[in-house]
User: Fold these one by one.
Assistant:
Number 1:
Amino acid sequence: MDLEPPPPSEGAWLATLEERARRAVRPAVWAYVQAGAGEGVTSAEASDGWRALRFRTRVLRGVGEADLRTTLLGTEVSSPVAIAPTAMQRAVHPRGERAMAEGAGAADALHVVSSNAGTRFDELGASGPWWLQAYLPPRRDLFRPVVEAAVAAGARAVALTVDTPYPGTKRGVDDEDWSSVDLSWWRTNYPAEDDGGWKYDTLDDIGWLREAAGVPVVVKGVLRGDDALRCLDAGADALYVSNHGGRQLDRAVGTASALSEVVAAVGNRAEVYVDGGIRSGADALAALALGARGVFVGRPALWALGAAGAAGVERLLKELRAELQECLDLAGCPTPADAVDLL
């Protein structure tokens, strides 16, 4: 059963969310959620990259209250703030992806479901718009039924994650600590013969996935302008700037730094999204100012899930939306698109 979130308190709930989640989630799972790669340099710098940016606000525009509604690959949502894909949701909360989907749906927000999910796609229901995140196994034929099941269940796009030829070593994570954690649900949407192996992706995977899915393909994990253009030329429909939450190559550039290069390279050819260290409405405004169409949150969504289930996810999204609303109003921006060039 989902826990009820605490009574509203201006700004206090978001500020204490991480600690609330730490107390609610088992220590081994918490260590995994929080872990970064290597020395943790990239993961530690993520939020600071957004906080370092400063706005040049607009005045005397007669804006009134900004309208946050926008579209992500043609799907209308309540705001540009969406939920990034994360695994281990059923280890964080018993209802896992179902609670995440319900919370996102209640906030009229997009969420992305991991292909390693512990919940069958057809159990997610029609609570709101969602995409499938994809890791391609060495045998592509084993992934075809996975993506077909996701699309049949309502996935509107596939986010191909390309920064993970295999999982990087996570700092402070000990496999022995997981001995008491039931993982029988892991990768429940894959066929039984899948061995969970990994492979090095190529540009050909974009076209193959687009054909297999029959829905748009978003390439996630892009940090360079030249790579963004190669992906578009290979058939990608959108780009997603991400360094995997600092969990793959440590000392990878922060997404706050990489975003502008990717946006400049792409121009008006495709939408660009970003995640990594987004913790507030001001962070989201900075991402929009750099040209992002969608702003995704990862760890905070897991914190909200662990602390208060679906109600926590809904509250997280609504509070971030309220913060972004105020930021846009004060910056003189009638819509998220008008935030471009605030920096």
Number 2:
Amino acid sequence: MCTLTFAPTNEGFLVGMNRDEQKIRPAALPPEIFKRGDAQAIYPREAGGGAWIACSCYGNVFALLNWYSADIDALGPKIRTRGELIPTLVYELDSRSTANRLARIDLAGLHPFRLVSAFRGERIVCEWRWEGKRLDCLRFGWGLKHWFSSSLSDPSAAQLRGRTCAVAILDGTTPTRQWLRRLHKSHDPEPGPYSICVHRPDAATVSYTQVQITPRHIFMDYVAGPPCETPSCGRAISIPFRAKPLLTVGSSPSLIR
């Protein structure tokens, strides 16, 4: 369960993502800076190492959503975690290299997902969809867009949360960090399973991640817990923007302390 927003700005773009999970699930680890070769990336992690959102020094952002509308029952039990994809892909330079890398990954055993990636250098947003047997790619223009998922119903989440997003659209003005944060704290029309900030007896929005891409830096702000309960982002880290790699990316990532 998640809500993801992509919003272009005059200098780059913003991304906001609510992560919605069962309340019994172990808490995730906050974002850290990782390195592979000379490339840097920022992402939070599950205890097992998987990630649901990440950004790289190249100005690319990757976000992963479960795809509940696909026929999960026909696939059998989940063998591998979908979260392993983002740490593998985040160091890719552009949409072409990402597509090539994805094509080489054995996706057998992964339940359906939607992988959304924004590439600043190309000004393009891609959505890769894996329904359990086939991987497809959709491409979108450089404009405001939202994605929604819910274990109760993807279509209902898209319809009800989409109404809230439609009302929140800024007429002719540039989206701001404050606007995006307010949207992802929203309980319209009331707190519940289909509000953007989710509240259910068994599940809730457990974190909010916000990414800002500028000409010089990539910023990631992170809230551990429902964004409606935290007045400001609790952890903010950044890495310098780098338009071109200095060395070939290929070695294993290491954590920068």
Number 3:
Amino acid sequence: MCTLMLALRPSPGTLLAVSGNRNEFLDRPATGPRLHPPSFPGAPRVLMPRDERAGGTWLGLNNRGLFVCVTNRRSANLVPERMSRGQLVVAALQQPTVARLRAFLAALPPDRHNGFHLVFASVEEAGVLVCDGARSELLVLAPGLHLVTERSYGAGEGAREKTVLADFEALFRGEEPGVAALREPMRRHGPADAPLEGACVHADARGYGTRSSLQLRVPAHGAASALWTDGHPCTEEPRDLSAEVARLFDPVVRRTVR
């Protein structure tokens, strides 16, 4: 996942909103989100896609209402022998609460994976673990809007971060946005000579581009809704994931998010 907007209680009608595009090499195999049963007794059920090369995932939601997403970190030294960052997301989604996840991340050796930003949120709180492969720092994300890419937290932010965040800020200044409206900023393209400066990336000549897009909204009242797009959100139609989200949540979480 290379461009992620996370909004924690950004407006009176929204508890949590997520919108993100995964930019990846075009030949890397992956499958879309599906419900996964608990990995062991007492573990949460999880809704997540799958990276078929390394066996992990780049984002997911568990039945306790915990959302987790990872981006790479630019300029971090790459060590091929290290564990897949996608496996870290899978492990994070097994944590039943944000508090347990924070403890798990605090104990994580910073050299186990190549550099990353691991973003996590519930309707109550959010945070990010920033790791360059040698050092890590666990940060609290305050209520409001946050834009995270592989270039965030001092790794070399550029035009994409500013323009996409501005799009979402404008969106939340208007009427309460529905889940479909959260998709629009992720359709933005960069200039023809700088395609990586857009949220929706077309760089076929490099064998790279936007492979999928996710939007999730948990309202203050009513059921959560979600959309998933395989491919570019500027050209492909989304699939409604709301029924899968409803089946995921257990009764306790459903009472919390309604």
Number 4:
Amino acid sequence: MKLVALVSAAKDPDEAVRVLTEASGSTAAEARMRLAPETPALLARLEDAAADELTAKLRKAGLAVLAIDARVPGDSERFVVRTFALEKETLNLEARSGESMELPWGELALILRAQRAKRSETDKTETARRLSIGSAVITGGLKMTKTTSTVIHAAEEKTEQVILVYARDGRAAMLAEGSLDFTCLGTLQPSRTANLLELTKRITERAKAARYDERLVRLGRRSLPFGAKSEQRVASKNSTTLHTDTASTVDILAEVLWRALCAGML
């Protein structure tokens, strides 16, 4: 399976809707909905041949699109950094396992700052018996109470910012604020997010030839159509909880941006 993605917004939205409608067989309303989000945005999930055919048709019509494998690298397949050193010529990285990676500043091609979110929403039903004068009057005192039910809604969200760095040779690494040791920065900021912003600033200053993009700070918190499953509903006798994790959104959109850069589309 492949995902077809729009890399940059269409210059003529109405013409883009017409082209996508004809090429994909969707309705105009569906096409408009797919083209509406800020790019990069997903347009379709199709078998490989169909995805390549749709991509070719849309490119011929002037739209900046590409097709990528639906399965993209996640945390378990990445070089996840624990410690780092900003050397004069290189960015030196080390994982918790002890594995190391050395990336020359001049070889860095893409730097992405992203934000992903884990959210839990719970609806809990609470029942209680209360004194009811009305019930007592109607039943002649046989029934003095009534049962009432109340639904209580609670929500909790945790966010994490990450930096994704890509070298021209295809090597990539992730620096996540939740698992990164910031002591190499020297003077630390009052929060992990602030430290990550400072680290981003220092990396981009040194990697002058790399393209920097922070759109995924906004887009990374949203769920995607056609993307990896990011929701799980857990039900018990009196409550239902919906768990949402947008890590897959960051994974997919980061891969789109990397592939777009490699294809000369950024």
